[in-house]
Design goal:
The structure holds two protein chains of two kinds. By secondary structure, chain A is mainly beta. Chain A contains four helices and 13 strands. Chain A has a single domain, classed as outer membrane lipoprotein receptor (LolB), chain A, CATH 2.50.20.10. Helices cover about 10% and strands about 50% of the residues of chain A. In chain B, strand 10 (about 265-270) and strand 11 (about 270-275) form a beta hairpin. Classes of the chains: A mainly beta, B mainly beta.
């Protein structure tokens, strides 16, 4: 799933586990980190706090529902607050073999529009997250080359420090460095670099076991060049909860009600 | 400003207000369990068994604007200024298999001059399994075009203030029944029935009165007095619309029978005047797809009036209508939205055989291009937009630059509207009504 994808996926990226790993290469560690949380459905409500350069903050409340169906993944994102964006809903349907289908419902247009994915480096609805950041846990491991830079402690936890360099030179980051805890394979921190140097710092915290899956309930992404940040606090998270099929349809985007 | 077509059906404003308040006060019954509900229900939603998403909510918007109009002959000190506070109140309630929505518009102009316009929308939506039925004063959008495509036929437009350019804001809610039948996840059939008809609302005087209407007024002809009574079965309208998705393409077909919203004005000097709204059948199709990052949209329609031969001077000829557009992110988050739309008159041979033919001395084609360039900056807290409308045949235009800043959840906007080109053109005639605006607004 790309771009207009899971907020929860950002969190999942910080919650992988290898179990009993032996001597692993960097690629296996990254793969295990990204693949750990398996669920047929994910439902979440998150509060996003966007802090501007002058310290002023704006808040967004976002619901997200995702379904890992046989035909492909389907994700719905619903903006609940503030009032200026409330009722905005996105639907993404993954299609094996061709581009994802995406639709958006904007209350100001009162209709569902098919849309293309925005530029990967573009801001995700005004946050510091780019669309690439949002879909980072779905990024194919093969899209980057990985290397273990070193091993060190972070907040008292033994970590691998792994550098990932995109094979596609047009990707928005020139390199990404992840701190992944040994044993659990939970990603604790990431530094994202562009041509100018360190661009973003991604930090995961408040780990909590949710239905047997260790999940970071707080994520903070700081844009160090713009001196802004976006924090995501997960208020509600449910794995494998039954979600009516009608949620993943354009009809739901129009009415906000599964039928 | 005097307005055309004030309608008795809207009823007294206080009834709407009372209904809205009553609606807000009623605790809604539980809705079928799914999701986290309204934000106010967050605490309950945190429970594992939570799911019922129901209740009543109140929202709205308050805005204050100061507008200045530019007139070439005026000294700066004499330029007209206008300050206007407007409020919008929305009441929404949801219960088992039902939702209710009321939207009220409040401003000095509405309360003082046209209180019947206070009730902007009011409807019920019933959920019947995968299907739904809506009834009330509704604004519905049909078609794929971003603005005023030829298939968007259910609601007339309020053209009494051309500073309003958003399609939905321009629409006048109409009483109608609207049924939606789900035929799969991505396929549906819609049926709309409107028991009455209302034409576009046009200003009879003031800065937004078209030249033709002003000319009649100058002759002492009361335009409104000639408008037909459009209540009754004779003016009932209905439409059927089928939409689906086939792979990467969304497409639809529709049929509509109704009345053209622009009146046929037959004027034989000195004082013989008749106005009518022509019945017509519309057959239309539309499609939307994404290709190479372009969001493509297209509509085509045939409007078949009762003058198929084109020889009735008092009835509009049949015509073909089209709309073609796309939007795409260019670079640095700049988005370009481009749409062309127009019409082509059929049965042209009979046009203009008599001097009072309503289509005499008018262009056979009508083409308009709308381009919108926009960019959001600083976490979408700053947005600029340049919107341009250009009439090909009239060679006239309407430019709308806009710059908006978020201040927390509020917004400050400065903008302008500049008309130009042929002074007899549909847009160019309003050159003396170019305007600039400062707007403060807050949605809650």
């Amino acid at each position: 799933m790309k771009r207009l994808a899971l907020l929860a996926a950002v969190l999942a990226a910080g919650a992988a586990s290898l179990g009993a790993q032996g001597a692993l290469g960097a690629e296996e560690i990254v793969r295990a980190s990204r693949d750990r949380i398996q669920a047929d459905t994910v439902s979440s409500r998150s509060r996003m706090m966007i802090v501007a350069k002058d310290g002023s903050a704006t808040e967004r409340l976002v619901d997200q529902y995702s379904l890992d169906a046989k035909e492909g993944k389907r994700t719905v994102i619903v903006f609940q607050k503030p009032a200026s964006v409330a009722g905005t809903r996105f639907l993404t349907v993954s299609n094996p073999g061709r581009d994802d289908d995406r639709w958006i419902f904007l209350p100001s247009l009162a209709k569902v529009r098919r849309i293309a994915g925005s530029e990967g480096s573009g801001s995700f609805v005004g946050t510091d997250f780019s669309y690439d950041d949002i879909s980072s846990s779905d990024r194919e491991v093969e899209e980057d080359t990985h290397a273990i830079l070193r091993e060190e402690k972070l907040e008292g936890k033994d970590c691998w420090v792994i550098e990932s360099r995109p094979k596609d030179p047009s990707f928005q980051y020139t390199r990404m460095v992840h701190w992944i805890e040994k044993g659990s394979c939970i990603a604790l921190k990431a530094e994202l670099y562009d041509k100018k140097g360190l661009l973003k710092l991604l930090e995961f915290s408040q780990f909590k076991e949710v239905q047997g899956r260790i999940t970071p309930m707080a994520t903070k992404l700081s844009n160090l060049q713009a001196n802004t940040s976006t924090s995501i606090a997960v208020e509600i998270l449910k794995y494998d909860e039954k979600i009516p099929a009608g949620v993943f349809t354009p009809r739901y985007l129009e009415t906000g009600r599964p039928q | 400003m005097r307005h055309l077509l004030p309608r008795a059906r809207r009823g007294p404003a206080f009834r709407a207000a009372a209904l809205a308040l009553a609606l807000a006060a009623v605790p809604a019954a539980a809705q079928e369990g799914f999701g986290f509900g309204e934000p106010e229900a967050e605490a309950a939603a945190a429970l594992p068994s939570a799911g019922p998403a129901s209740g009543a909510s109140v929202g709205g918007e308050l805005s204050f604007s100061i507008d200045a109009f530019y007139r070439a002959e005026d000294e700066v000190a004499d330029l007209p200024f206008e300050g206007l506070a407007e409020g919008v109140l929305e009441f929404k309630a949801s219960g088992t298999k039902v939702e209710a929505f009321i939207k009220l518009k409040l401003s000095e102009n509405i309360l003082g001059e046209s209180p019947e316009d206070m009730l902007d929308e009011a409807y019920l939506r019933l959920y019947l399994g995968p299907h739904s039925l809506e009834g009330g004063l509704l604004k519905l959008v049909w078609g794929k075009a971003d603005s005023q495509g030829p298939l968007d036929v259910l609601n007339p437009f309020d053209l009494r203030d051309l500073r309003i350019t958003e399609t939905l804001e321009r629409k006048i809610a109409e009483p109608m029944l609207h049924a939606t039948f789900a035929l799969g996840d991505f396929t549906k059939l819609e049926l709309a029935f409107l028991p009455g008809f209302e034409g576009h609302r046009i200003a009879a005087e003031g800065p937004w009165a078209p030249a033709q209407v002003e000319a009649l007024e100058l002759l002492g002809i009361d335009f409104e007095g000639y408008l037909p009574d459009t209540e009754g079965l004779e003016y009932a309208q209905a439409g059927l619309r089928f939409t689906t998705s086939s792979g990467p393409v969304d497409w639809g077909l529709q049929y509509f029978y109704g009345r053209l919203p622009t009146p046929a004005v037959v004027f034989i000097p000195p004082v013989s005047l008749s106005l009518s709204y022509d019945p017509y059948h519309q057959l239309g199709l539309d499609a939307a797809a994404v290709f190479a990052g372009f969001n493509l949209r297209a509509e085509a329609a045939a409007n078949l009036t009762e003058d198929l031969e084109g020889d009735d001077p008092e009835v509009y000829n049949p015509s073909l209508l089209w709309s073609l557009g796309f939007d795409r992110d260019l670079f640095g988050g700049i988005n370009l939205n481009l749409q062309g739309s127009g019409s082509f008159r059929l049965a042209e041979e009979g046009v203009g055989e008599v001097a009072y033919d309503i289509e005499a001395d008018t262009e056979r084609t009508r083409t308009r291009v709308t381009a919108i360039l926009s960019q959001k900056l600083r976490n979408e807290t700053i947005e600029w937009e340049l919107r341009a409308l250009y009439g090909i045949e009239d060679a006239d235009f309407y430019l709308l630059p806009r710059l908006a800043f978020d201040v927390g959840d509020a917004e400050i906007e400065i903008g302008a509207g500049i008309f130009g080109g042929d002074e007899e053109g549909e847009l160019g005639q309003f050159a003396e009504s170019s305007w600039a605006r400062l707007l403060l607004s807050y949605e809650f």
